[in-house]
Amino acid sequence: MQTSILNSSFDIFTNIELSSQSAIGKLDGSTIIQDILPYAMEPRQQITNYDDFVNTFVSKMTDTSILDADVAKLLFNTKVKDGIFTIYTIIEYPVRESAIFKFETSSEITYGILLYAYTIAYQLMYALEEEDDADPGHIPGMVNRDTSNGRFGIWGHDIGDLAYNGRSQVWIHDHRVVCNFICDS
Question: Structure pTM?
Answer without folding.
Answer: 0.87
